[in-house]
Amino acid sequence: MKIPVTELDIIFISYDEPNANTNFADLQSKCPWAKRSHGVFGSDAAHKAASALSETDRWVGVDADNIVDPDFFGAEIDTDKIEDDWVISWSGKNDVNGLVYGNGGLKCWPKQVVENMRTHEASNILGSKKSLIEFCWDVHYVQMNNVYSYVHNNATPYQAFRAGFREGVKMSLDEGSKLENKPLTMLHNKNLKRLLVWMTVGADALNGFWAIYGARLGCWMTNSTDWDYTLVRDFKWHTEFWETEIFPKFGHDEDKFLDEVYNLGDKIRDELELPIAEMEAQNSKFFKEVYVSPTRTAPLIREDQIGI
User: Quick check: 50 and 38 in contact, CB under 8 A?
Assistant: First the structure.
């Protein structure tokens, strides 16, 4: 049976994103029935709160930093091709570095999965180690290649820094765990390449260097220090870290900030042996123009047969 996504609840999930109100207004202009869950701390709790708003067995989650493509509302889901507990993950395109993958993309959640999962801050309660900082290692995702949203997580320096830091941590882990006594080049190939892009590309974008710096710092702290990388799931920790450690260090001194970005690049090349580069705005813009995203896990059926 094919179900148009227009028959599902669409739920916008926001916490403290500076562009959330603007993005929600944009969503409502395309999807007047969209609902919003706001201000719930913790990714697991936020998704449970969103799911509680849904009156349909499946619902589509929209992250607050997303602009949804109008074409999405012409999509259909063929329930005969998926299991009841599978989460459908569409691709999002990142404004800073041009990466196209599940980060920030739209997700179609079964209510039963959300109610039963124990991830992020709830992972210590009947959860698994894989679910400490991310859904994808403990939930069955169907990874689709359609790009149905555009991720703008760079409206402010802090938002860009946090987005980069979180991916710098997550992409340098192997299913949620550190690669003990192994080089980071042993990471899953696609994740390794995405990590390298996060740490290199974005100089042409608004607050792009903050995203680059965040990714570099997250990767370096995870793999070259004894910092507890599970804190990456805690947005309150991020805010305190920014307000007490990051922003006071640089203030509005752009030269000092860029020197730190490049110095950290040297550390990553020397200590972690990752081949990141230093790219100015023109180079970054060129990369995004010619970059072709690798195919995600093959869809269950052809995209011209189904809207997912």
Answer: no
Measure Cα distances from 264 to 151, 205, 243, 279 in Å.
26, 20, 20, 14
Task: Answer whether residue 201 shows pLDDT above 90.
Answer: yes
145: part of which helix (H) or strand (E)?
A: strand 141-151
Global pTM reads 0.91
Considering the domain architecture, whether residues 41 and 147 belong to the same structural domain is answered as yes
Domain residue limits at 65: 2-151
10 and 145 fall within a common domain: yes
Q: What is the DSSP letter of 174?
A: B
pLDDT in tens, 139-157: 788 888 899 999 999 999 9
At position 299, the amino acid (one-letter code) is P
